[in-house]
Amino acid sequence: MIRGIGIDIIEMDRIKQSIKRKPRLIQRILTEREYQRFKDLNERRQIEYAAGRFAAKEALAKSLGTGIGSLSFQHIEILSDGKGAPSMKVQGFENLHIWLSISHSTTHAVAQVVLEER
């Protein structure tokens, strides 16, 4: 049974400018494992990666109906499988199957989350 859906879109330039103004922001958004992957990317891919993860975490919060204020970005981790498909793990919500899609254009990143009861 579907428990919730959420979607979020963000401008790449907004993330890029935010990271330039506050370099530590990236470590607030990304978990340690996400950050390790981020460091291995070139600048363009770093912005796409960060924007996609930010949008996905916001979409999750919307799907839960809570907003990001009641969750921490650090409790939400998005890793990719060998083919690049993202999967999301959320502390405290292990009873849910989380369907996640992230996409990018040259100017925006978008993510959609569907929560399903296990």
Automatic annotation (TrEMBL):
<dbReference type="GO" id="GO:0008897">
    <property type="term" value="F:holo-[acyl-carrier-protein] synthase activity"/>
</dbReference>
<dbReference type="InterPro" id="IPR037143">
    <property type="entry name" value="4-PPantetheinyl_Trfase_dom_sf"/>
</dbReference>
<keyword id="KW-0963">Cytoplasm</keyword>
<keyword id="KW-0444">Lipid biosynthesis</keyword>
<keyword id="KW-0276">Fatty acid metabolism</keyword>
<dbReference type="InterPro" id="IPR004568">
    <property type="entry name" value="Ppantetheine-prot_Trfase_dom"/>
</dbReference>
<dbReference type="GO" id="GO:0000287">
    <property type="term" value="F:magnesium ion binding"/>
</dbReference>
<keyword id="KW-0443">Lipid metabolism</keyword>
<keyword id="KW-0479">Metal-binding</keyword>
<feature type="domain" description="4'-phosphopantetheinyl transferase">
    <location>
        <begin position="4"/>
        <end position="111"/>
    </location>
</feature>
<dbReference type="GO" id="GO:0006633">
    <property type="term" value="P:fatty acid biosynthetic process"/>
</dbReference>
<comment type="function">
    <text>Transfers the 4'-phosphopantetheine moiety from coenzyme A to a Ser of acyl-carrier-protein.</text>
</comment>
<feature type="binding site">
    <location>
        <position position="58"/>
    </location>
    <ligand>
        <name>Mg(2+)</name>
    </ligand>
</feature>
<protein>
    <recommendedName>
        <fullName>Holo-[acyl-carrier-protein] synthase</fullName>
        <ecNumber>2.7.8.7</ecNumber>
    </recommendedName>
</protein>
<feature type="binding site">
    <location>
        <position position="8"/>
    </location>
    <ligand>
        <name>Mg(2+)</name>
    </ligand>
</feature>
<dbReference type="Pfam" id="PF01648">
    <property type="entry name" value="ACPS"/>
</dbReference>
<dbReference type="InterPro" id="IPR008278">
    <property type="entry name" value="4-PPantetheinyl_Trfase_dom"/>
</dbReference>
<dbReference type="GO" id="GO:0005737">
    <property type="term" value="C:cytoplasm"/>
</dbReference>
<keyword id="KW-0275">Fatty acid biosynthesis</keyword>
<keyword id="KW-0808">Transferase</keyword>
<dbReference type="InterPro" id="IPR002582">
    <property type="entry name" value="ACPS"/>
</dbReference>
<keyword id="KW-0460">Magnesium</keyword>
<comment type="similarity">
    <text>Belongs to the P-Pant transferase superfamily. AcpS family.</text>
</comment>
